[in-house]
Amino acid sequence: xxxxxxxxxxxxxxxxxxxxxxxxxxxxxxxxxxxxxxxxxxxxxxxxxxxxxxxxxxxxxxxxxxxxxxxxxxxxxxxxxxxxxxxxxxxxxxxxxxxxxxx
Length: 103
Hints:
two-stranded parallel sheet; 2 strands; 12% strand
């Protein structure tokens, strides 16, 4: 979708584990692209995306062309019937990509 509407390509890294997580792959991608979007289903506060963002900010600061973006669950309890509105989706990720590219 980002390719069609914005003319940008994205690298997708699916971390299989968070301990240990593949920091080298993530940093290589940031060095190549200059940007980072982290998404997960947990709430944004105290989520693992904050750890990734912090690590990348420290290790790849001079390679970043935009602030790290996080697309995560909301900081609120939710009933399972409203789960589709809570979880990160392609539209929230697309909006974050637009912010990254327009910075």
